[in-house]
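A reminder from the course coordinator: this example appears on the midterm review sheet, so study it carefully.

Given structure:
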């Protein structure tokens, strides 16, 4: 090794950390529309969703069931059946604007249909929804784009729908006087009957559609109003595209009950009803006896058949030529009525199926005509529970549709529509509540009058006098104290007069007069209060 190599200095080592180039980060923006994927988008070969089953089958099940019609009619009668009313949203002093809005809302609801009472349309909606799982209403607007008419679509199975279609469309929604703009995808609907097809757009879709082909108008295009499609508002049970009847879990039981009823009915057509067995041993009936027996069975009806008898003749079956006549024909009549079907079959099975169907509707026996085992207490409890758990939630849901969909464009601020409900107040409970309230000093004459009138189904006006808002107990105690003061003052007056007549000292009379003056002042103060 050379001397230069020995003296060379080592080169310095430089190290650098090389980092991966990061892309420029953009601010994350939240999607302004729904991004969920509908299950029908993955399985449908076209944009039109096929009905999962023939809805006419469900209709046939209902018509042939011994319990489904009662349950459906109970829903129909108790949810919208008591009528539709209008009320103020807040309990405030009435203004002219509020009165005008109240009257306008009443008129709009009343004129939504002129063919029948408006509540009857919602009764039809409930009946169809409980039969098919879904119901449809055709909505008609005026030139101002306000809802003025609704028509119930009676042929529910004839309606088909698409999945929510692209693109997202902005629409205006009014909330407490504020205009909001939201975006959503809308469906198309079509109705096919007898080779004719009519297209509809989903309720709230602001675009114009041609009802002949279901196409939306492009910007700048025009279409005669008579060809513009109306809207469809649907009422479905559950989240499936075509809804689902609430008794879907009892479908096998409903079908089984139908078959059991059919079997029992078939017994009267093809069953055997032979109550007697005529046995002939060692011979046969003569032709004359057979004819007489047939005529007897055909003519035994009525008074002519009473106390009648029949003579049967038989002949030996063996054509023997000897003179042995020991084997004579014998005729024996046996009663076989005991082996006949005496009552319907599968009674327990039918009863269990009935209870299961009622359970699907959450209805007690009282609402479907089975009222053999109940009293006042159980009936009252059944009504209260059913109102709270079944009918009232359904009324609230339907009222929301009216206020927030059908009437949303009117921008009502002070009033809302609601479905009337029956008065199920228990008089005994009401009596106990009023008694406790009165004893505690909280019941006023106006409140007592209001409660009584509402129990009678009437309206009442408050007492205008001040005492109308004073609790009854306090008012009674006040009157009692005034009466006591009056009594004491009267007694004291008599004592003063007696003292003066008996020449009682003036000092005593003076004191008594001072007390009398004080009582008068107390009486005046009580009167002012």
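Designed residues:
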């Amino acid at each position: 090794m050379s001397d230069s190599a020995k003296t060379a200095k080592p080169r310095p080592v430089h190290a650098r950390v090389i980092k991966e180039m990061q892309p420029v980060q953009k601010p994350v923006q939240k999607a302004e529309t729904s991004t969920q994927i509908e299950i029908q988008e993955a399985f449908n070969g076209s944009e039109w969703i096929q009905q999962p089953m023939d809805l006419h089958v469900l209709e046939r099940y209902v018509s042939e069931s011994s319990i489904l019609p009662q349950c459906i009619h109970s829903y129909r009668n108790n949810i919208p059946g008591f009528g539709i009313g209008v009320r103020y949203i807040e309990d405030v002093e009435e203004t002219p604007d509020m009165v005008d809005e109240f009257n306008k809302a009443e008129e709009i609801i009343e004129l939504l249909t002129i063919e029948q009472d408006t509540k009857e349309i919602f009764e039809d909606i409930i009946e169809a929804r409980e039969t098919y799982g879904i119901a449809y209403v055709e909505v008609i607007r005026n030139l101002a784009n306000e809802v003025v008419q609704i028509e119930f679509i009676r042929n529910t199975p004839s309606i088909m729908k698409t999945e929510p279609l692209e693109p997202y469309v902005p629409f205006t929604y009014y909330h407490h006087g504020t205009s909001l703009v939201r975006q959503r995808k809308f469906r198309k609907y079509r109705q096919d009957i007898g080779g004719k097809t009519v297209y509809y757009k989903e309720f709230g879709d602001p675009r114009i559609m041609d009802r002949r082909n279901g196409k939306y108008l492009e910007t700048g295009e025009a279409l005669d109003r008579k060809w513009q499609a109306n809207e469809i508002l649907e009422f479905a049970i559950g989240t499936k595209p075509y809804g689902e009847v609430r008794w879907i879990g009892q479908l096998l039981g409903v079908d089984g009950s139908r078959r059991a009823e059919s079997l029992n009915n078939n017994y009267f057509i093809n069953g055997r009803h032979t109550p007697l067995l005529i046995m002939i041993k060692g011979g046969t009936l003569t032709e004359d006896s057979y004819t007489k027996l047939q005529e007897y069975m055909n003519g035994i009806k009525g008074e002519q058949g009473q106390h009648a008898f029949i003579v049967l003749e038989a002949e030996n079956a063996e054509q023997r030529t000897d003179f042995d006549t020991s084997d004579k024909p014998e005729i024996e009549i046996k009663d076989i009525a005991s082996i006949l079907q005496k009552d319907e079959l599968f009674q327990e099975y039918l009863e269990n199926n009935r209870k299961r169907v009622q359970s699907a509707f959450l209805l007690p026996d009282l609402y479907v005509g089975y009222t053999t085992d109940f009293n006042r207490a159980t009936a009252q409890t059944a009504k209260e529970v059913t109102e709270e758990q079944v009918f009232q939630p359904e009324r609230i849901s339907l009222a929301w549709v009216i206020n927030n969909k059908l009437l949303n464009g009117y921008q009502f601020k002070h009033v809302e529509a609601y479905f009337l409900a029956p008065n199920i107040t228990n008089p005994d409970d009401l009596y106990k509540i009023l008694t406790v309230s009165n004893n505690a000093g909280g019941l006023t004459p106006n409140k007592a009058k209001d409660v009584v009138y509402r129990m009678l189904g009437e309206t009442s006006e408050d007492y205008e006098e001040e005492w109308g808002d004073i609790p009854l107990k306090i008012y009674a105690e006040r009157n009692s104290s005034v009466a006591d003061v009056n009594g004491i003052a009267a007694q004291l007056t008599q004592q003063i007069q007696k003292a003066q007549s008996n020449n009682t000292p003036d000092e005593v009379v003076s004191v008594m007069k001072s007390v009398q003056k004080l009582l008068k002042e107390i009486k005046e103060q009580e009167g002012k209060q």
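DSSP finds 14 helices and 15 strands in the chain. The chain has a mean pLDDT of 81.
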